[in-house]
Write a structure and sequence with these properties.
Elements lengths: L4 E7 L5 H12 L4 E3 L8 E8 L6 H5 L3 E9 L1 E3 L8 E4 L7 H9 L3 E5 L8 E2 L2 E2 H6 L9 E14 L2 E8 L5 H12 L3 E11 L2 E2 L6 H6 L2 H5 L14 E4 L1 H8 L16 E6 L4 E8 L4 E7 L13
Length: about 300
């Protein structure tokens, strides 16, 4: 077996994404552990944890679509965009009904511009924005383009609105809630947020926080998926032993997916199926050059922590 792969975790409320990484690191006895896509401490749901050499695939997984179920509280605006923050203003929801909410939501589907919240992990002159926000400092943020693939109103009960959201990389649900609230004229903040999917990793198949905290290490390793699971639907190639050696030494190989255009990224596998890394098609579709090499993804015995 391999010491690389991905463990999809159902993060519990009240812990940071870094806390989740630290727990996985302790439970599995690994040093190289990272996550793909930060979840707010109050949010729950899918947090893919990448292990060992699979951490090299983090940017490709982070680029994939994410799905959320968000419960918004209308009539309140906070400094964080969720109900954990300091209340800046309140207003009566009045006659806002489901039809108005659905009409406003349609305006946010597609490519939109979004100003990242101050309470976010974006860097500004060497500091995280949330570090500045905690000091009472607010700095200008440039709007960023994000993609909302779907934004559906699932339920409206009084001032509570439940939304189903599918979005692209870099979308802040708290910012989306605030913008939707502004469009409705009453303000809104996130009351509850659950991430139900990151790329191919779903909430239903994720490892619960209780299991992550208490199960023996071999049981957790049994839930680890191979590195290739992070890149579903990608074209792939298999290399013979000679081409495998060339690829692992950083050299292009005379193999490429049929019909793939130059610039196409592809999974590269050895003849035995193990993933060697990510390659890019070059030379008019005749070669694949290495982009990321997973050196340690080799079958063999694993030494588990005592």
């Amino acid at each position: 077996m391999s010491d690389s792969g991905v463990l999809a975790v159902d993060k519990t409320a009240g812990v940071t994404s870094f806390d989740a990484v630290a727990l996985v690191r302790r439970r599995l006895g690994l040093k190289r552990v990272g996550h793909a896509g930060t979840l707010d401490p109050d949010a729950t749901g899918v947090l893919p944890i990448l292990l060992g050499e699979a951490t090299k695939l983090m940017p490709y997984l982070a680029d994939q679509d994410k799905a959320y179920v968000a419960t918004l509280r209308l009539g309140v605006v906070t400094d964080t965009g969720d109900l954990s923050g300091r209340v800046l203003s309140t207003s009566t929801v009045g006659s806002v009904d489901r039809a108005q909410i659905e009409a406003a939501a349609r305006g946010f589907v597609g490519r939109i511009k979004q100003v990242p919240p101050m309470y976010s992990a974006i860097h500004h002159q060497g500091q995280r924005l949330y570090e500045l926000a905690r000091q009472g400092i607010e700095v200008p943020r440039e709007p960023r383009e994000v993609v909302i693939h779907a934004l559906d109103v699932e339920d409206v009960t009084g001032a509570s609105v439940r939304l189903s959201i599918v979005c692209g990389k870099g979308t802040y649900i708290r910012a989306l809630a605030g913008d939707l609230g502004a469009a409705l004229g009453c303000g809104a903040a996130v009351e509850r947020l659950v991430r139900t999917r990151v790329g191919p990793f779903t909430l239903e198949a994720a490892t619960s926080w209780e299991v992550l905290s208490t199960a023996p290490a071999p049981a957790l390793w049994a839930r680890v998926q191979p590195a290739a699971a992070t890149l579903p639907g990608w074209p792939s190639v298999r290399l013979d032993s000679r081409a495998t050696e060339r690829f692992e030494h950083g050299q292009p190989v005379d193999v490429a997916p049929a019909g793939a255009a130059d610039g196409t990224l592809t999974r590269v596998h050895a003849a035995d199926g193990r993933m060697l890394g990510v390659g890019e098609v070059v030379l008019g579709g005749r070669q694949t050059r290495p982009v990321r090499i997973l050196h340690a993804d080799r079958p063999g015995p694993r030494v588990l922590p005592a």
